[in-house]
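We now fix the convention by which a protein and its fold are recorded. Here is one such record, which you should read through line by line:

>
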Amino acid sequence: MSKINYYTAEGLQKLKDELAELKTKGRSEVARQLAEARDKGDLSENAEYDAAKDAQGHLELKIAKMEEIVGNARLIDESNLDASKALILSKVKIKNLKNNMVVNYTLVAEEEADLAAGKISVKSPIGKGLLGKSVGDVAEITVPAGKIKFEILEISR
């Protein structure tokens, strides 16, 4: 059974673009490699041909997985989300109570996570710990380094 994942319009478009690229440029590149290998003669002892066939198999598997992900993707309707709680697409300003460091994160779907851009997955330990919390709440989150307490300072969309 396939699982449904929720995406922003931007994240879903990124997935669709990647899938289109794999289907067009990826497939044409593999076809070129296969043609080159075929031109070299006997296919039974041709390592380049075997490698190209393996690459083709991997590409088709990746395309099939991406098609399943896109097929089960759902857009998030921001108008139905409670702005007073930390939910997917929330911009959350939190303070680490141990070192008083303040950071801003946007909670996003797993495939859209990008720590450098301040986007963390709702499936990450911190993302899970923040979900459902309101401003003023303290979230005690277990991370690989131990338990950390974060105070939620601000939630916005």
